[in-house]
Amino acid sequence: MADQRGRPRVLFLCTGNSCRSQMAEGWARSLLDSDIDACSAGVDPNKLNTLAVKVMDEAGIDISAHESKAIDACEPDTIDLVVTVCGHADETCPTFPGKTTIVHRPFDDPPKLAADAKSEDEALPIYRRVRDEIKSFVEGLPALLREHGLQQ
């Protein structure tokens, strides 16, 4: 169900909507704003991860005003494609109305991988790696949308 500008609506879904899904939304809005209408949400919303904000800012994308939100904030009845970016979101993904396509593309969890980091400087490379992996995925979204018949 495309938005008013004819763009397919894409939801990036994670557990807390604090890190990976927020980075994906940031990349999508930055790289593909004319092609898709992006939103992110969590099955159990938490607070925005400050290191995710920092590494996105390093890449020139400001997500500092983003807020962690539940699925309802993204108008689930209008979503064309849901991308679950973690295993928990994939396992607990709700049923969406209509012909919503759901794709699972898991990314490592930076907060979990960096839990034993002794400093921010030690944690940041993990966040940067995942940020860059998410960017690569988002760059391929137009092809994925065409593959599922959601975009010309």
From TrEMBL:
<keyword id="KW-0808">Transferase</keyword>
<feature type="domain" description="Phosphotyrosine protein phosphatase I">
    <location>
        <begin position="8"/>
        <end position="144"/>
    </location>
</feature>
<dbReference type="Pfam" id="PF01451">
    <property type="entry name" value="LMWPc"/>
</dbReference>
<dbReference type="GO" id="GO:0102100">
    <property type="term" value="F:mycothiol-arsenate ligase activity"/>
</dbReference>
<dbReference type="InterPro" id="IPR023485">
    <property type="entry name" value="Ptyr_pPase"/>
</dbReference>
<protein>
    <submittedName>
        <fullName>Arsenate-mycothiol transferase ArsC1</fullName>
        <ecNumber>2.8.4.2</ecNumber>
    </submittedName>
</protein>
<keyword id="KW-0059">Arsenical resistance</keyword>
<dbReference type="GO" id="GO:0046685">
    <property type="term" value="P:response to arsenic-containing substance"/>
</dbReference>
<dbReference type="InterPro" id="IPR036196">
    <property type="entry name" value="Ptyr_pPase_sf"/>
</dbReference>
